[in-house]
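hey so i finally got around to running the thing on that chain from the lab meeting. sorry it took forever, my laptop kept dying and i had to restart like 3 times. anyway pasting the input first so we r on the same page abt which one it is
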Amino acid sequence: MEKCAGVQRNMTKKVIGILLLAVVIYFGYNYAVDASTPYYTIKGSNKMNGTTAQIGPSGDPKYKKIVYINDQYIAVTLTGFIYQSIDGQTWKEVYRDTGRNSLYDVVYGNGYYLAIGNIVVKSFDGEHWAPKDNNLTNSLTEVAFGNGVFVGNNSQRILTSVDGAMWGSKESAWHLYLFRDIAFGDGKFVAIASFGIYHWSKDGYEWSEAKVDKQLDGHSIGKALKSISYGNGIFVCVSDDPDRDGGSMIYLSKDGVKWKRAARFSGTPERVEVSPEGLIAVIGKKLILVSRDGSKWASYRTEGEYYVDVAIVKDRMLFMKATGEIVEHLLHE
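ok and heres what got predicted. didnt touch it at all, straight out
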């Protein structure tokens, strides 16, 4: 009986601890958004026309990420494949992991490419790849490079590396909230999470925390901020259901610290990408949103399986499905 009572007391302490942490998350953060700025309400949609191509075999629908770096496209899959293309239409397989380990993202820094997941693969030219020994114990799902370091996240922790091999963090505690995405711009890293929380850092080691918008309070785990990108002097991030009525919000920031509401739309966002020229594309499960500068938006509906990522080069957008199908769309005013 005493043992059962002790177990019950311990469980009660854990429940109280979780509730207190939730209260801290709810009330303990400064809100960064400029709520006084009018935002654009996106209505209606057009059919997106475009030409199609196929990256690789479509029988294994696990294509995850497509990027355009150093005049070439690179795509990675959750089954350990890497594909490369110069024109975005003709692709070739350049790496195949024998253990079919997952790759989630790819980035360039310090003179080489890194593809990351539950393995790390390195290349100096984007065509010849080799696995790199590392100390990771959990998969990295997103990665960014800036100020001489690579910074990635594995949902509940941010990790930093100078070479892609040794990863570490000054934070020892895992977070209750979940990290979703990370971007580098304006001399700093910005990592977004659930509950509307974001972290920012100049060196990838020391981090500050805040909340984007009070409207994001009260959501369950897994909601709130979903994706972030940087281009042409602006950060863009997207959130789930900030108004609790089926709508979602797009936020803009010049410095990654002070945010404003830019646009509201009906739908579920998945990814956002900003080109170096400032063209913004938001991918949802049945929609695509496009804007030149975040002030006005065009809405497009998708047919069939939704897109998982997009690579943007000037006015050319390559939308990728999980099956490896590419739909190329040229934006015309």
